[in-house]
Structure prediction request, 92 residues.
Amino acid sequence: MFIRRWGIAMSCYIIAQIKINDREEYDIYENGFDEIFAKFKGIIVAVDEDPVVLEGEWPYTRTVLIRFPDEKEARRWYESPEYQSRREISSW
Prediction:
């Protein structure tokens, strides 16, 4: 995940595969994410709720690709109280 070449930290990507059962609850969970991502230098690269599945099954409702400048920032975001408190309310 974290690679250094020539002294340069590589970007770290997180792919979130989400199955939404309750859109209203998910909207509460999602509210405020932009501010949290910004704090950890995260950027939402892509969001797709209707991917083209070429092979097999895809049980998820939403896929989100998030980029961080490096693994350190990705882990800081994931382990942060801001994100963890969001995870606690996730019953969608």
About this structure: The domain at 9-88 is CATH 3.30.70.100 (Alpha-Beta Plaits). The first strand starts at residue 4 and ends at 5. The CA atoms of residues 21 and 92 lie 5 Å apart. The two ends are 29 Å apart (CA to CA).
